Amino acid sequence: PGYLSGTTVPGDVDAAQIAVPRLPESVKGLATFSSDIDSTLRCHANAEVPFNATITVTNLDNSRSVQCVSSIGGAPPETTIVLATATFAEIADLTDAPVPVQITWNST
Question: What is the 3-state composition of the chain as percent helix, strand, coil, each rounded to the nearest 5?
C-alpha cells in the first residue's frame, strides 16, 4: 500500500456500516379498472394493502407505474386492485385488463 502523507500506519479497520432503508411492502396480483372510481388518486385495493396507504402499481408486462391512495375499500376477490379508468390507462390499454401488477407501499 502507498501512503500520501503522515507517519501513522492504518490499523485494523472496523467494518463499514451501511444504512439500508426499509423495503416497501409488496404484493403481486391483477389490476383492472372501474368508471365508478371518480378520482385518479383513489383505488380499491385488497385487504393486504393498508387503508389510506399511498401505493405504487407497476404493470409487470411493460414496467409502467402509477401511484394512488388506497382509501375507498376492498377489491373484488378475483383482482388485487381496481384503478380509476384514467389511472389504469397510464399503465395499460383498457382492452388488456386485467393486467399482472406489483403493488408496493411503505409501512409506517
Answer: 10, 40, 55
Q: Which residue has the cell 500500500?
A: 1
What are the backbone dihedrals phi and psi of residue 31, each rounded to the nearest 5 degrees, phi first? -115, 140
Q: DSSP 3-state assignment of 8?
A: coil
> Which residues are registered as beta bridge partners of 28?
102
Q: What is the rounded distance in angstroms from the CA atom of residue 51 to the CA atom of residue 72? A: 8
| Residue pLDDT tens, the chain, 108 long | 555 565 555 565 666 677 766 667 888 999 999 988 877 788 888 877 888 889 999 999 999 999 999 876 666 667 788 999 999 999 999 999 999 999 998 765
Structural contact between residues 51 and 68, judged by C-beta atoms closer than 8 angstroms: no
2: Cα separation from own chain's centroid: 46
Given the DSSP bridges, would you call strands 65-73 and 25-34 parallel, antiparallel or unpaired? unpaired
Question: Where do we find the cell 451501511?
Answer: 18
